[in-house]
Amino acid sequence: MFASTLLALGLVVPFAAAQSMMHTVIVGGSAGNVTFTPEAISASVGDQVMFQFQQKNHSATQSSFAAPCSHKDGGFTSGFLPVAANVTDNFPSYTITVNDTEPIWVYCGQNAGLPTSHCGMGMVFAVNCGPDGSNTSFTSFKNAALAIGQQLQAQANATSTMGSSYGSASAAPAETSTVAAAPPAVSGTSTSSGAATTHTVSVGANGGLEYSPNEITAAAGDVVVFNFMAKNHTITQSSFADPCLKLEKTSTTGQIGFDSGFMPVAANSSSFPSFSIVVNDTTPVWAYCRQTGHCESGMVFAINANDSSSKSFSAFQLLANGSNTTTGEPASSNSTTSSNVSGASRTVGTSAGLALGLVGALFAVVM
Questions:
Q1: pLDDT band with cut points at 50, 70 and 90 for residue 330
Q2: One domain for residues 203 and 346
Q3: Are 237 and 342 in contact (CB under 8 A)?
Q4: Residue 123 belongs to what domain range?
Q5: 115, 142, 163: which is the final residue of a domain?
């Protein structure tokens, strides 16, 4: 599991501003792992769980303790998120929010109902399960999934034996390659969960050079998720005075700022990368797309801009439109570094499970 790191530089904010935690769970892996890593976690109300999908083709689908390998009515599912063997970064991810302390049971839905069922092989996960020996322990949940796998295998063997008198048994079908449905391209979706609110921003929806919405108001501890919908964009922190330059190039205090890196999305894609930040305080946060000419075309974004002051979002966008700065980088660029963040912190990219927080001058490792 990736470590989540808090790097405190810049503004002094109280530690209580970090009202929620991001837990990273690796799904699959380069060795063809049929596992969630870790298999179980404890989480508080308001925490988020980010499933990072690595090699092969898996899902994170909610089930129940009683039926570990069946989709729970009304439960979440990531859909299938295939990852090629040669992919080393920009892994797709799917994030849920913990709304209470009740156990959450999850499985991979690949090859459901078949002897090669991933769930039947023990590919399950839990949040806030009971301790070993209890009625809701993770061990009991996983054993129930393995029992289903054994039953499916026994049925397949029986069918194969019967079929030998009448010809060869059919081979098991290949892994499903269906990918997750597109995330909703709804402007400014906000979901409240305990102490924190998650704000959803669409990037480049319908081929437009815009963030939708292009500005939001957020409280300390809120999460902003950027869903990249089309073409090849970034979300990169800048400053009000220099809207089309990385913050690190203009800061006089050593701030670097968050940067998603380029997130290319094919025209026929139905799987969309995302990038998230956590808002540390109510200081305005300014950002832009660093693809060639996009910032100068007004593709900028703000959090907590004071629209009744001279530093309003409209003024920020006007500065970007009038910028003579050449901000673009080659579309193949895949830079993803970020630290020393002002006002917000990156918690989850599509490749790294790192949290870069701004909590005074504190450096701590969590998770």
A1: very low
A2: yes
A3: yes
A4: 21-163
A5: 163
- Cβ(242)–Cβ(38) under 8 Å? no
Q: What percent helix, strand, coil does the chain show, rounded to 5?
A: 15, 30, 60
User: What average pLDDT score do residues 269-278 get?
Assistant: 81
- The whole-angstrom separation of Cα 245 and Cα 328 is 10
The angle subtended at Cα 96 by Cα 92 and Cα 99, nearest 5°, is 170
**Angle, CA of 125, 131 and 137, to the nearest 5°:** 45
Q: Which residues of 4-16 are buried (b: 16+ CB within 10 A; e: fewer)?
A: bbbbbbbbebeee
Indicate whether 119 and 227 sit together in one domain.
Answer: no
Integer Cα distance of 352 and 90 in angstroms: 8
Do 93 and 41 sit in the same domain of this protein?
A: yes
Torsion of CA 133, 137, 141, 144, to 10 degrees: 10
Structural domain contains residue 9 = no
In a domain, 181, yes or no: no
Q: How many CB atoms lie within 10 A of CB 159?
A: 13
Residue 70: pLDDT band (50, 70, 90) is very high
